[in-house]
Write a structure and sequence with these properties.
Subunit structure: Heterotetramer with KCNB1 or KCNB2.
Distance between the termini: 29 Å
Region (Disordered): 1-22
Coiled coil: 415-452
CATH architecture of the largest domain: Up-down Bundle
Strand content: under 5%
Number of strands: 6
Domain Ion transport: 182-416
Strand order of the largest sheet: 2-1-4-3
Keywords: Cell membrane, Coiled coil, Ion channel, Ion transport, Membrane, Potassium, Potassium channel, Potassium transport, Transmembrane, Transmembrane helix, Transport, Voltage-gated channel
Helix content: 55-70%
Amino acid sequence: IKMAGDSRFPDVDTDGSEKNEETEIVVNVGGVRQVFYGDKLNQYPETRLAELINCLSGGYDSIFSLCDDYDPGKREFYFDRDPDAFKCIIDVYYFGEIHMKKGICPICFKNEMEFWKVDLKFLDDCCKTHLSEKKEELEEIARRVQLILDDLGVDASESRWKKCQKYIWKFLEKPESSYPARVIAVLSFLFILISSVVMCVGTIPDLQVVDAEGNRMEHPTLDSIETACIGWFTMEYVLRLISSPNKLHFALSFMNIVDVLAILPFYVSLTLTHLGAKLMELSNVQQAVQALRIMRIARIFKLARHSSGLQTLTYALKRSFKELGLLLMYLAVGIFVFSALGYTMEQSHPETLFKSIPQSFWWAIITMTTVGYGDIYPKTTLGKLNAAISFLCGVIAIALPIHPIINNFVRYYNKQRVLETAAKHELELMELNSAEGKAASFKSELEDLEREGKDGPFCNSRLKVSHSDTFIHLLSEDKHYRTRLQSCK
């Protein structure tokens, strides 16, 4: 591009003043031409298009600081930008707000708005929500990549205890980090299953034994297996607590609270068995022990730690509180209405089973949920008609909110899959860039050595060091967003 004095720019004087003060400008963005008028653009003087009106009087430096090229014969400004995003952005000059078209990457669109110097406040609220969701996804990807990099990296300044603590934490919390860690995760999963099976099998009367007082108790073999499982759970929890980088957050985590609830009843019942008899009656001790044994069912929730499907289901239900609330509201209204109608219609029958409206709630619940135990049922014609209407309404009330809940589960599950894939893709790009950088650096080193006349063995030793050195660049914020934008496009 030639500057002042070039014959290609006949409409501009050497002092940079514009001969024709026409307020109409032509903009060519990615091959799409648009004509704008000054009265529209001057509504937002801080935008790039508004600055084009006054840039001609500032000379070529001012012109080319705002655009990629300029044709003075056509008075046309050229920009190598996204034309689809530009068509959405220029709506601000006509409508005062911007809507993002479907299919455009929100982060790319945000960068386009920053290039055209249009404030994000003009973006519609629905599009801002989409943009914030995409930002959260990028932050989650960056967090996952950083966690992987932290696992790969070794800080030489760390003490031996810190290194050991970090290794134990990765060994117990991240099964994908190594093959032994994967084996430990499988063993923990098997211990949970064995403990749950033992808890169920121990209630079979034929497998129980009678103590000296004539009370039934679990078989000693099952009791030994239970003790071994509790020992494994205790050791696992203590090691994870010791190696945790943030012990307060670890103790307050929901899954770790479940672990405590699964372990604590064993030790409390053991304490009551040996010491409680001295403080209270033996019957009270046995009742307390039985109540604590029931709490062992909490250990089944430990499976969620090793199952991504259960974790996804939990998060999907947490995001579906509104739909679940609607479901409960529909059922509550139907239960109240149909139980009251059923009680009223069944009063004329001498052998009615509907003694009161609160007692009819149970009939309405099992009818609307299509369970129908048959312990309470209507005997009059009107009561049967009311029952038919109630279970039809129950089917409809349950079916309506189920579809949004399933959609939330599928959306969250697919999102987690996409985030995992994106994090792996990000690491592959980083490793590729690292390999290219090392190859270029090594090539320049070889050229320097050849120019300096170094011997062959020294070059081979340098080659081995460079080839064996494993180095991954840390993911800076700028590089991260640039890489993700390339993926989005």
